[in-house]
Input
Amino acid sequence: MTAYPPVSPYAAGLGGKCPRCGEGALFDGFLGLRKTCERCGLDYSKADAGDGPAVFVIFIVGFVAVAAAFMARFAWHAPLWLAFAISAGLAIGLTLLLLRPLKATLIALQYANKAAEGRLEE
Output
């Protein structure tokens, strides 16, 4: 078995790289995972971030978008349609920007912490 140097799960996640070797690509497309790492052969079939990345993105983007809408409307006295357009554009842009790195980071953290399904010991 080949020994791999330790890879920071945060660096691997933010770069969209393999959590074991830190070099191979994790994604095939925008959010779809590859079957295996092309560098070290790590099987990604058990990697599942679930709804975690979407929940984090909703909380972060929701706070920023609502704050931007309030600032546009009440601090800058923008018309309602402009405040909505700013908020909607910011929400869409931040969602697309954050979803992929958060998904990769959660998968890398699962690998680093050897996450598995819960089992009852007998």
